[in-house]
């Protein structure tokens, strides 16, 4: 299959959709716990991706009989996805949201590290500088310029969120080798994630009542934010440079701040403007063509 759009454009669309997570989660989890919200979103995502497979010309038999590799390997990615959202929603439920956000968005940096280990290649000084600038931009945005305001009083919760972020970084990195068809692979990814979230919900929560479900939020989250966007994300990771793709993710929290201002009336502070400028600089540095600098062992010997 030839990709209908560039990896960067696919990743950018994902960034815009994922920046709406804060808005959808804020409205969708008012009467649901995170186990229920995750399960319902996965059910809708599975149906949405299944429909996308059919619209893309995939035959039902091919979707349901993808072969051992087409089923087993995407299922591993699906379990990693389930663990990521489990850790993320738990963090938001039990700890300070700003600190959870900082820990959550460590996964783009983890992608760069995992990609470097996989390819036996350092990311390069320019790209590394870009990632540092992107991290600084994010910290300025989420702390509104008060960088010293982060006070971690519950390290266990943060470690769980970081473990979840690692799961998503690993999922994104493995997508390059584990998924041969992004549509069918994403379908089975969500099937595995749905089954994992079902087991978790039945073990630690209960089936939600229909009157507790905000259908608009659940549908928006399942169809677009955690559904079709994953096809684009798998394509972007599989066809593009993972480090460059990860760099675009730093736009997501900045856009999230804008949506919160627009929809919930939060004040736009000058720190957001500074962060936006730094994000643009970070994107320019990180999307420069990578240069081969040798393996980590070679680099160490040269030092």
Care to describe what's here?
With 303 residues, the chain is mostly helical. It has one domain (7-302). It is 77% helix and 0% strand. The protein is built from 15 helices and no strands. It has helices at residues 7-18, 21-28, 34-55, 60-64, 67-94, 97-104, 107-119, 125-143, 155-178, 182-204, 215-239, 242-248, 251-264, 270-286, 296-302. The radius of gyration is 19 Å and the shape is globular. Mean pLDDT is 78; it is low at 292-303.
Task: Summarize the structure in short.
The chain has helices at 7-18, 21-28, 34-55, 60-64, 67-94, 97-104, 107-119, 125-143, 155-178, 182-204, 215-239, 242-248, 251-264, 270-286, 296-302.
Supply the key terms.
303 residues; mainly alpha; globular; disordered C terminus; AA-Vitamin_Transporters; DMT family transporter
């Amino acid at each position: 299959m030839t990709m209908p759009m560039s990896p960067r454009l696919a990743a950018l669309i994902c960034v815009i959709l994922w920046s709406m997570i804060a808005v959808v989660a804020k409205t969708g989890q008012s009467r649901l716990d995170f186990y229920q919200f995750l399960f319902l979103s996965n059910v809708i995502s599975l149906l949405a991706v299944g429909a996308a497979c059919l619209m893309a010309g995939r035959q039902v038999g091919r979707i349901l009989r993808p072969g051992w590799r087409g089923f087993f390997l995407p299922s591993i990615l699906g379990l990693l996805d389930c663990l990521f959202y489990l850790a993320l929603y738990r963090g938001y439920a039990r700890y300070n949201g700003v600190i959870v956000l900082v820990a959550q968005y460590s996964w783009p940096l983890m992608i760069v590290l995992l990609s470097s280990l996989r390819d036996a290649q350092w990311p390069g000084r320019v790209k590394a500088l870009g990632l540092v600038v992107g991290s600084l931009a994010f910290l300025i945005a989420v702390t509104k310029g008060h960088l010293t305001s982060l006070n971690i009083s519950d390290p266990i919760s943060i470690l769980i969120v970081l473990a979840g972020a690692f799961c998503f970084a690993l999922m994104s990195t493995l997508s390059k080798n584990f998924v041969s068809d992004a549509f069918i692979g994403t379908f089975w990814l969500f099937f595995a994630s749905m089954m994992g979230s079902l087991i978790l919900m039945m073990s630690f929560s209960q089936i939600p009542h229909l009157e507790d479900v905000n259908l608009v939020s659940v549908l928006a989250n399942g169809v677009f934010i955690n559904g079709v966007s994953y096809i684009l994300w798998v394509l972007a990771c599989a066809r593009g440079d993972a480090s460059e793709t990860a760099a675009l993710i730093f736009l997501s929290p900045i856009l999230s701040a804008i949506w919160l201002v627009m929809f919930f009336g939060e004040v736009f502070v000058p720190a957001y403007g500074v962060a936006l400028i730094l994000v643009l600089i970070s994107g320019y540095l990180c999307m420069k063509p990578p240069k081969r600098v040798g393996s980590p062992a070679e680099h160490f010997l040269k030092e």
